[in-house]
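FAQ: What does a ligand-bound record look like?

Like this one, built around fructose -6-phosphate:
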Amino acid sequence: MNYYIKNLSEIYDDISKEIIGLVNSKANPILGLATGSSPIGIYERLVNAYNKGEVCFKNTKTFNLDEYVGLDSYNPNSYRYYMNNNLFNKIDIDINNTFLPSLENCDKYDDMIKTAGGIDIMILGIGSNGHIGFNEPYTSFDSLTHVTDLTESTIKDNSRLFSNTDEVPKKAITMGIESIMRSKKIVMVITGKNKKNIIKELKKGIVHESIPASILYRHKNVDIYIDKSI
Ligand code: F6R
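The answer part, i.e. the structure of the complex:
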């Protein structure tokens, strides 16, 4: 596991360059994508590169980590809306090659990823409680894509984007921890003042289901980028 502590803009530069390198060099690149505040600068840079003619996403497929249960694609808080708005509608990707987990495809999602060729680069953020995707503490390390209940701490963290806490869905569909671990490479961005404690916990290097992200110590190809200003 490699840790890099850098300015957030350098982090976004590094990761977007790596993604562009992959997309420009591989016939069928497969990206795993996260939403939320942490990866937003990556998407901005991918859009800028596309606008400058530096990258073409026509052959790229994407699989998002998670989606709320009960929010449709027109709901600005849905992750489909976020992805369309921040990336997919602004580049030349075929929208039919962009996938998010849903109640309908939940049981097939891991097979869909496998059939596509497996995720080349998986982008992750981390919750203040150590969640990855919506795999909350004590989710089995063997889990595949599944429906899950959100914890109070995640509902509280995510309520900043809703008009009040009651509007935050209580359930989500998420790639499981094993689904994430199958990715060929994992890149995590850690930013946000509320992540200070979880960084300390993670750096202890103890792998335990109480901190879902700690599983990353068992993966051979992981870069963790920490925002210097936290
Ligand atoms: C989002 C996701 C979540 C977030 C995490 C951090 O698709 O899977 O695990 O990465 O909750 O969220 P932010 O980046 O908003 O702090």
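Follow-up question: can I read anything off the structure? Yes, for example: The radius of gyration is 16 Å.
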